[in-house]
Amino acid sequence: MKIRRLCLLLTVGAFSTALFAGVQTSYNAQMKQPMMATLLARRIVGDHDNYADAAYSFKYGINGQAGLGYTHNRYDLLFGNAPDRDIFDVTMIVSDCSRIKDLGEHNWSDNVKLPELSAFDKPAREDSIPAVQGHMYLVHTKQWEQEWDREKTTYVKMFTDYYTLFRVESLESLVSVTISWRLNSEIKKTPVDDKDGVSDSKKSNP
Q: What is the distance between the alpha carbons of residues 183 and 93, in angstroms, rounded to a whole number?
């Protein structure tokens, strides 16, 4: 077990020599080491929903009940939102325009050419994709949140827009997944056009 953990740390640490092309490469250089996170498979038992433990915010680098004060229940990634499959989802609320792409089996030290992955123009449902150990994924997060506008002295809706790379380091089927990840772009913010019909309703039910 100790040898396995050491190999995992060495593999993750080796990413600093990698060159990723396609999305904000100047920003990549600022990310010196990927973060680690564990997500539980989403389960609803009686009145208990472990959604906060099954989801993750790349923007804040947090999940779980302790992170709700930061995330306000808006997340970038959800694991195991099915009783019989290991899957990832990125559109968890109806205002989501996010996308995800499986890049195949890679290590952080690989020279990976990233594909174009535009967010949806309007809120839409992105298909779930399988969670596979050793695979890397590109996520384009685009969803809205409310921010205080000092000039208007009111809250305004703003889209946050950014890219993240993550790798599945370990997978316990139907139980949990551990990933390594790093932001791969700056976080851009643009005003929300209410004519698009965005709302704050959650839609990621099994």
A: 21
Token pair, residue 55, equals: 């989801």
Where on the phi/psi map is residue 47: left (φ > 0), alpha (ψ -120 to 50), or beta? alpha
Say what the alpha-carbon torsion angle 138, 74, 142, 163 is, to the nearest 10 degrees. -30
Cα–Cα distance, 197 to 123 (Å, whole number)? 8
Domain ranges of the chain: 2-196
Exposure string of 78-94, with b = 16+ CB inside 10 Å and e = fewer, is bbbbeeeebbbbbbbbb
CB 178 within 8 A of CB 37: yes
Q: What is the pLDDT of residue 201?
A: 46
CA distances from 40 to 57, 65, 135, 178 (A): 14, 13, 18, 9
DSSP state for residue 126 in the 8-state scheme: P
pLDDT for the residue numbered 147: 76
Across the chain, which has 206 residues, the per-10-residue mean pLDDT values are 48 39 38 88 95 96 90 93 97 92 96 94 95 98 84 86 97 98 93 58 50
Q: Which residues contact 63 (CB under 8 A, 6 or more apart)?
A: 37, 39, 52, 53, 54, 55, 56, 57, 71, 75
CB atoms within 10 A of CB 13: 14
pLDDT, position 206 = 46
